[in-house]
Amino acid sequence: MAATDVDIFSNEEKRNLSLGGHVGFDSLPDQLVSKSVTQGFCFNILCVGETGIGKSTLMNTLFNTMFENEEASHYQNGVYLRPRTYDLQESNVHLKLTIVDTVGFGDQINKEESYKPIVDYIDTQFENYLQEELKIKRSLFNYHDTRIHICLYFIAPTGHSLKSLDLVTMKKLDSKVNIIPIIAKADTISKSELHKFKIKIMSELVSNGVQIYQFPTDDEAVTEINSSMNAHLPFAVVGSVEEVKVGNKTVRARQYPWGVVQVENESHCDFVKLREMLIRVNMEDLREQTHARHYELYRRCKLEEMGFKDTDPDSQPFSLQETYEAKRKEFLGDLQRKEEEMRQMFVNKVKETEGELKEKERELHEKFEQLKRMHQEEKRKVEEKRRELEEEMNAFNRRKVAAETLSLSQPLKKDKDKKKSVKTENQSGVNLSNSKVMMAKANMEPLNCQSWWQAIQCCTCLVHSDAWRQGLF
Amino acid sequence: CNRNDKQYVGFATLPNQVHRKSVKKGFDFTLMVAGESGLGKSTLVNSLFLTDLYKDRKLLNAEERINQTVEITKHTVDIEEKGVKLKLTIVDTPGFGDAVNNNECWKPITDYIDQQFEQYFRDESGLNRKNILDNRVHCCLYFIPPFGHGLRPVDVEFMKALHEKVNIVPLISKADCLTPNEVKKLKDRVRDEIEHFGIKVYQFPECDSDEEEEFKQMDKELKECTPFAVIGSNTVVEARGQRVRGRLYPWGIVEVENQSHCDFVKLRNMLIRSHMHDLKDVTCDVHYENYRAHCIQEMTSKLAQDNRTDSPLPILPLPTPDVETERLIKMKDEEVQNNHH
């Protein structure tokens, strides 16, 4: 049944009936209560403030326990959020408490991006819940709700006004989460200064349009206390886990040389007011506001982004399911188209690459052929040279053999020839070996000339010489 | 008769003469205060000098401070005590660390300090030196917030940018939000971090070995107490039958001058009663001399590009060297060298 259908029924007159006896449905709230007690409650607190301002100490003081904690360093590169979940029990009520700390907030020299991790964290918790809500098979009753129900913003007790970072951050958070600003370490501000400080802070928040959480005044049971508390914002708190003996009682306090600041003394600080408001009176309202206001805003923005509308152009109510189906079809169609595109692109790319590869292969082949040819050319040349060399060698060998046989056949004449050849050299400078050969040759064949010198000079005799004919000299 | 009497010359009266002349001349002191707004700087200055220097100042809203730039403001007052005149200048740095993006927010401050050095350098090198105005910053009180676990990145960067230009005295401000244990823990932490980051804060001079024991003991206590944890107040309250400067709380009264409440008295004694002149001396002898030497070195390195070795230090700071003169000098130099060989 869509929202507009209810209108049909509201036009009908509602009749009040009086009961004849006790029916018993007045036990409904009790049934609700017992069910919620069995289920257990869940509460998520976000603490935003500079390092060392007292966030962990205040949590310990509020819940009267020691949550484990290491001291944070001032030298973080950026802001990051540290959620820790604890299971607490009081009487028979179970509370799943998550405390989210902002580590490194306010420490960087450039704080322009400091608010981003905080906003992202809050949005992520909303997103997770939205996803669960949109599931087909969902189990919301079992779901661990991590959405932030309250943001405690810790203001440094300067006594002047808000810091610029405080203003910027609160403006970014006020539409996403319930903010309660508190003045931390308030034992450094005197009463008169505190009054001025609170007024200044509230006026700055108002003039900059920052919406902080207002304690609800529509429920008669709590109107009075809530409206008086609203006037005390921001709460000036002091936290302590140490106990000091005051009079005959031991109370949580801070001991100074000039006095003892008691945490639960309402004339010392507003801790008691904070505890009343936050835990004892309005915890449930905070959860409700988170779900009904901040979460709904987030959900609406998110869905509008995705293209959902409440009514189509014909003013007919859209069902979420139909819209969702249509969106899904569209999305799948888109997906398919994109897939086709990608496949096409891929095929083209493959073709291209193939072409390139083929081209390269051809080039390589050509190169190979060329190299082969060169190699063969070289080989041929080498072969030729080798042949030439062989020929030369053979020729040389033949000459050698010839020379040897010549010398062997005429051993006696050798000395005489030698002398003559010596003489010859002295006389004319003719190469000795040549003349020797000639002598040898002259001895092999009959010469017409009487002396070797004449023999050399005589062409006819030379012509007859075998050796000459063979071209040995 | 006493031999000493006969040999008494009389120059033992010199200290008295110095005293008389200095009273006549009067003293001046420039104190800078730096730190984020809301840490009690103005209140502390008022408490230190028992006056109200900041009567009509306007504080900015958070919105106006988002993109605030750092200003330098000066307040000068003439105060007199027992015939001794003091011209006190307080240099304030509104806007430091208050914007969302504080990159290099200390630059206007370092520029201011350098400007004062430069002005003094010019005056000192000038021809008429009778009435030199000394506007150099003698001491910088840096206010560390007591809300954190120690020094923050902006504190470290600021002190490192200034520690070689001015005497830095770090203070833990608004110490009435810390119990005695917490004060001790924070002081130890800050001292460790100062050493770790190599920050050179103002060191008290060692006392002479021939000083009285009491003085030595005081000196030792003083040194172990740094950084001083201070509280300031603009109001006078009634405590223990007396009217004192203090802060009135529902749970008690914090007395500014009570040594068991905070280190205000130690700071005042150190700053005004014992070490004021030493702060001035260190500024003149160390920080200013460093600046001067650095300046001169830069100038001579420009001149040395003309291949002049052993160039004499210029008496006057020359913005651009006289080209003609340079050339002439160079020529003569070479002549001399040639003759020498």
Folded structure, characterized:
The complex is a heterodimer of chains A (473) and B (341). Chain A has helices at residues 6-10, 28-39, 55-63, 115-134, 164-173, 191-207, 220-230, 271-281, 283-306, 320-409, 413-428, 432-444, 452-457, 459-464, 466-470, and strands at residues 41-48, 80-90, 93-103, 150-155, 179-183, 235-236, 243-246, 249-256, 259-262. Chain A has 473 residues and is α/β, with parallel strands linked by helices. Chain A is elongated and about 175 Å long. The N and C termini of chain A lie far apart (130 Å). The model of chain A is unreliable at 419-432 (pLDDT under 50). With 341 residues, chain B is an alpha/beta fold. Chain B contains 11 helices and 9 strands. In chain B, the strands form 2 sheets. A 6-stranded mixed beta sheet of chain B has the order 2-3-1-4-5-6, sandwiched between helices. Chain B has a 3-stranded antiparallel beta sheet with strand order 7-8-9, with no helix packed on it. Chain B starts with a helix and ends with a helix. The chains are: A alpha/beta (473), B alpha/beta (341). Chains A and B meet through helix 5, helix 6, strand 8 and strand 9 of A and helix 4, helix 6, strand 8 and strand 9 of B. Chain B: Pfam families: Septin.
Ordered list of secondary-structure elements with their pairings:
The complex is a heterodimer of chains A (473) and B (341).
Chain A (H helix, E strand, L loop, with lengths): L5 H5 L17 H12 L1 E8 L6 H9 L16 E11 L2 E11 L11 H20 L15 E6 L8 H10 L5 E5 L7 H17 L12 H11 L4 E2 L6 E4 L2 E8 L2 E4 L8 H11 L1 H24 L13 H90 L3 H16 L3 H13 L7 H6 L1 H6 L1 H5 L3
Parallel strand pairs in A: 1-3, 1-4, 4-5, 5-6
Antiparallel strand pairs in A: 2-3, 7-8, 8-9
Helix pairs in contact in A: 8-9, 10-12, 11-12
Chain B lengths: L2 H5 L6 H12 L1 E8 L6 H9 L12 H4 L7 E9 L2 E9 L14 H18 L14 E6 L8 H10 L5 E5 L7 H17 L16 H12 L3 E2 L6 E4 L2 E8 L2 E4 L8 H11 L1 H28 L19 H18 L1
Parallel strand pairs in B: 1-3, 1-4, 4-5, 5-6
Antiparallel strand pairs in B: 2-3, 7-8, 8-9
Helix pairs in contact in B: 9-10
